[in-house]
Amino acid sequence: MQALDAGEVRRWAAACVQALDAHREAIDHINVYPVADGDTGSNLLNTVRAALEALLRAPGAERADAGGALAVLAKGALAGARGNSGVIVSQVLRGMAEALRDHAEVTGPGLRAALVRGAELATAAVSRPVPGTMLSVLDAAAAANGGANGLHDVAIAAAVAAAEALDHTPEQLSVLAEAGVVDAGGRGVVVLLDALVAVIAGAPPELAVAARVRADEVKVAPRPAENSLVASREAGSDLYGYEVMYLLEQTTEVAAGALREVLVGLGDCVSVVGDGADLWTVHVHCNDVGAAIEAGIDAGRPRRVRVARFADAAPDGPARFAKDRAVVVPVLGDELADLLLAEGVAVLRVDEGAPPTPYELLQVITGTGAAHVTVLPGNAGLVAIADEAAIRAVAAGQDVVVVPSVSPVQVLAAIAVHDPRRRAGDDVVAMAEASAATRRGEVVVAAEDAITWIGPCRAGDVLGFADGEVVLIEPGPPGADTLARVAAAVVTRMLAAGGELVTALLGRDAPAELADALAEFLRGERPDAELAVHRGGQTDSVLVLGLE
């Protein structure tokens, strides 16, 4: 990918939510500066989720270009910021939006400038910046220069520099070194940049996440319920017992500066930051809650006041999800749907010529009641619909990953290796690898005259496809013998590159003898190859072939 447009900015925001959800507990656990069992991961997740929700709700004109989409994200993050880390992220997004104002796309140089401005505003948001925190990691990412200006090169350089800076945070903060951990907020920054690299590379964000999550074997401390008035301390001195946050309107730069000074006198972890227009977020750790709120009243009009009492732990709230894992597949063909249902897959039945809407697929995703959902589109025309549904489910709090799959045989290969006992990230990786390793073929009867890469075809001709390309045209009519010859030719071409398991999905109009003819051909020509035949019932092809 050479540039990020508004749609890709939205995909990055969704990827950030997915990645932070995967890392949340591990990040919370290593939050030891200065009190253990903090909530940095939860704060980052809630802040970025608020940003994504704002982007999904925004009018089309406000998010028509990349710069506008980032501005909406920044405002949403500021309004929904949780804790110091959330405020800092909102300012990173604000800085990126400022650097890319009126930019239709984000290129490599634009991304570098955006990271620089984001780091500047993040540092300005903190009353007393400390080395060895997420600010140090942000500065390293902004200063990275891999020598190339391509979008992927700039993103990779920033992510690598951030990871290296994260590794050095214990050298800058003794409390981290004593605990044997890196800075929690800094780790969150690395997760966000990893998600950006994954989006630019066109990879599922869960694949980038899995590389880091796989090594995480941590004992997670209990955390408070989402709306509890008990909070754990993300940063600052344990002399202060309360966290006060609110949004501030109808104020000025001068009044906001004066408010910051008042709050510094009341406590620590002070942030008074704006969106560059008319909204400010205020954050402070203190003991005198009334004075912190009264100072806001003196400066403007506070709203959405949130006061939380610090505690090291609190009981978990009620479970939101009924189960941990689910797989969702949109399916064309009743018999294939029944086959997948027997494997425990949640199915959306699709009618030929009437693709589902993202909302129909979203209903199936949310209807699973699962915390982690893997979606297998199984058709190139459904990938964008699956992505849209996944983004909306992620914004609502589910962890949803779309595994690339453009054929039902790739879906079957992924289902074959699905194991809910594995860690969610590892399971997604295994399913993605199985799908990608499955070559696909089709035997289709042409519905009309057309021009293909290998020449013209007429309605009624039999076409053989291998990995999405027409490789054979056999003149019609499409009798059983003709269909069998084309199927044998496609299988021969696919087996030439290796493989040992051929899967055949018979369409609704496939003659009964087609499976026997294919089996007889393989016994004679490739006895080393195994054949598995299923009735798929699909109407868009006579036969779908897979090779593993």
Helix content: 40-55%
Number of helices: 19
Number of strands: 17
Strand-residue proportion: 15-25%
Cα shape: elongated
Largest sheet: 6 strands, mixed
Mean pLDDT: 84
Distance between the termini: 29 Å
Radius of gyration: 27 Å
What are the low-pLDDT stretches, counting only 5+ consecutive residues below 50? 208-232, 311-318
Strand order, main sheet: write it out: 14-13-10-17-15-16
**SS content category:** alpha/beta
What does this structure look like?
The chain contains 19 helices and 17 strands. With 548 residues, it is α/β, with parallel strands linked by helices. The protein has a six-stranded mixed sheet, with helices on both faces. Helix 2 (40-57) crosses helix 3, helix 11 (253-266) runs antiparallel to helix 12 and helix 18 crosses helix 19 (514-525). The model is unreliable at 208-232 and 311-318 (pLDDT under 50).
Short description:
This protein is of the alpha/beta class. The strands form 4 sheets. Strands 14-13-10-17-15-16 form a 6-stranded mixed beta sheet, with helices on both faces. A hairpin with a 2-residue loop joins strand 13 and strand 14.
Key structural traits:
548 residues; alpha/beta; 6-stranded mixed sheet; 5-stranded mixed sheet; 18% strand
Secondary-structure map:
Blueprint: H1 6-29, H2 40-57, H3 66-79, H4 83-99, H5 108-124, H6 134-143, H7 151-172, H8 174-179, H9 184-201, H10 205-213, E1 230-231, E2 242-249, H11 253-266, E3 267-274, E4 280-286, H12 289-299, E5 301-310, E6 323-331, H13 334-342, E7 346-349, H14 358-367, E8 370-375, H15 383-395, E9 399-402, H16 408-417, H17 424-436, E10 439-445, E11 450-452, E12 455-457, E13 462-466, E14 469-474, H18 480-495, E15 501-506, H19 514-525, E16 530-535, E17 543-547
Parallel strand pairs: 1-5, 6-7, 6-8, 8-9, 15-16
Antiparallel strand pairs: 2-4, 2-5, 3-4, 10-13, 10-17, 11-12, 13-14, 15-17
Helix pairs in contact: 1-2, 1-3, 1-9, 1-10, 1-15, 2-3, 2-4, 3-4, 4-5, 5-6, 5-7, 6-7, 6-9, 7-9, 9-10, 10-17, 11-12, 14-15, 16-17, 18-19
